[in-house]
Design brief:
By secondary structure, this protein is an alpha+beta fold. Helix content is about 30%, strand content about 20%. The protein contains twelve helices and 18 strands. Strands 1, 2, 3, 4, 5, 6, 7 and 8 form an eight-stranded antiparallel β-sheet that branches. A five-stranded mixed β-sheet has the order 13-14-9-15-16. The chain is globular.
Length: about 375
Amino acid sequence: MQKVAAGFPSPAQDYIDKTLDLNEFLIQNQQATFIVEVESLSMRDAGIDLKDKLIVDRSIEPKHGDIVLALIDNDFTIKRLMIEGDKRWLQAENPDYADIHLKDGQTLLIWGCSHQCHQEVQMNSPERIYALIDINNCYVSCERVFNPSLNHRPVIVLSNNDGCAVARSNEAKALGIKMGVPLFQVQDIVRQHQVVVLSSNYALYAEMSNRFHSILAGYVAPHEQEIYSIDECFLDLTSYAQHFDLTRYAREMKQRIWDWIGLPVSIGIGRSKTEAKLANHLAKKWPGFAGVCNVLELDYLDQETLYAGIEVGEVWGVGRKLVKKLNQMGIHSVLDLAMQDAHRMGSLFSVLMQRTVMELQGISCIEIEHAPPPKKTNCGKPVLW
């Protein structure tokens, strides 16, 4: 009997030249990596069940919020490492199991599961400090650098094939033009207010983005920078807090970016990446911050007042579906979410929601990620896609 394929032939079939080795993707340091089997349900709500196999890498430093393999009194346990000020504890992800709280001065030996590390954990690890630098109205701002006549005018930049608005100047936003709206739906506004409509120039935006990220690279070490998107960049400023006034440091960045490439930016500084994101939002929306908001300098009551005035949907990672569910629970503002019990929210939603709440409370759970080097076109010019 002749066998024939019934599916669509894969265009990649001719390019398969070797078998897939999962070690290349799961193990970064072979000499320091071990496999362990889970023997309890204490991390069930984190998706770790009995008999699961965990990858343990002893060479990478564990951080707050990481799942770790801890050695306490000659017994191993899998828990989540939590760090809040001077407090350290190992948190279970199952309400039937108790957390393990560490006494002052106590140390324990830990290794991270799935890319964490072996180290002695002391009770005085520094509070993390992050900055998020964001280009204001990126595409419009890039166009204005080379066409100053667009300044102070309502401008929108359209997507591929001139379909929808993907960037708007503040003047265009004030006219009620929404992000992503099709051009034909706002033609009356465009004609009435003489809105400038531009096609996207992605080569220009990529070049300006590359310069933006390169300037910021001069302020931190390579491992302290994360290129989050074409117009956003995270910096880990933890090691600079003892030597610099971070607000002044941020204003220097902001001014240099303006002087060197003519792009306006907003900068938010916080104790977590989520808090830095919110601070960036405040820096844009409140003129009194003059483009730089450092949450660490805010009075506690002032911070509460500001958070109470921001809708919960502005929180990084909280999408429309989550907003609806949170609203049903009476959680409408950023302050409402920040006041929740993180562990309870994790059990109701997910570990990601638990981390989000903790980040809003100033506890860093999401560390800097390192992007690959920018790709190059055939002509050798760097671009970001």
